[in-house]
From TrEMBL:
<feature type="domain" description="Thioesterase">
    <location>
        <begin position="36"/>
        <end position="106"/>
    </location>
</feature>
<dbReference type="InterPro" id="IPR052723">
    <property type="entry name" value="Acyl-CoA_thioesterase_PaaI"/>
</dbReference>
<dbReference type="InterPro" id="IPR011973">
    <property type="entry name" value="PaaD"/>
</dbReference>
<keyword id="KW-0378">Hydrolase</keyword>
<protein>
    <submittedName>
        <fullName>Hydroxyphenylacetyl-CoA thioesterase PaaI</fullName>
    </submittedName>
</protein>
<dbReference type="InterPro" id="IPR029069">
    <property type="entry name" value="HotDog_dom_sf"/>
</dbReference>
<dbReference type="InterPro" id="IPR006683">
    <property type="entry name" value="Thioestr_dom"/>
</dbReference>
<dbReference type="InterPro" id="IPR003736">
    <property type="entry name" value="PAAI_dom"/>
</dbReference>
<dbReference type="GO" id="GO:0016289">
    <property type="term" value="F:acyl-CoA hydrolase activity"/>
</dbReference>
<dbReference type="Pfam" id="PF03061">
    <property type="entry name" value="4HBT"/>
</dbReference>
Length: 142
């Protein structure tokens, strides 16, 4: 699987990956804060969208048709945040995913996204799963 430069720039890592599911996580850093001193909505959206993209493309190439996100509570600087994507509907041409963004055991935001499935093979290694806590294939090359 090819590294994702955008995820790397945000300090995000893949914690789990299997067909139809993914967990992406990271720490809310100083550069991720808004004017209130809490995690910027764009950072949380990027976190959720990354898990959504991985979960949906683990079955084969897919592109987003629609996405929405509801925010429930702030995430603070230094907090560990996880986006947990789960497939809730799969058909021949579309699939829908729900992504819970969680911090300190509480639901911070809920993302829902639908993809159009293009057909074809999943990216290499997607069907094998990434055990929880592993960041296999996503390390920066140097």
């Amino acid at each position: 699987m090819r590294p994702d430069p955008f995820m790397a720039a945000l300090g995000l890592e893949v914690r789990h990956l299997a067909p139809g599911e993914a967990v992406v996580a990271g720490v809310v850093g100083e550069s991720h804060l808004n004017l209130h001193g809490t995690a910027h909505g764009g950072f949380l959206y990027a976190l959720a969208d990354s898990a959504f993209a991985l979960a949906s493309n683990a079955r084969g190439p897919a592109v987003a048709l629609s996405c929405r996100m509801d925010y429930f509570r702030p995430a603070t600087a230094g907090a560990w945040v996880e986006a947990r994507a789960k497939e809730v509907n799969l058909s021949r041409r579309t699939a829908t995913y729900q992504v819970e963004v969680v911090s300190e055991g509480k639901l911070v935001a809920l993302f829902t996204g639908t993809v159009f499935r293009l057909g074809g093979d999943a990216f290499p290694g997607a069907g094998e799963g990434v055990p929880s806590g592993q960041n296999s294939g996503w390390e920066e090359e140097g």
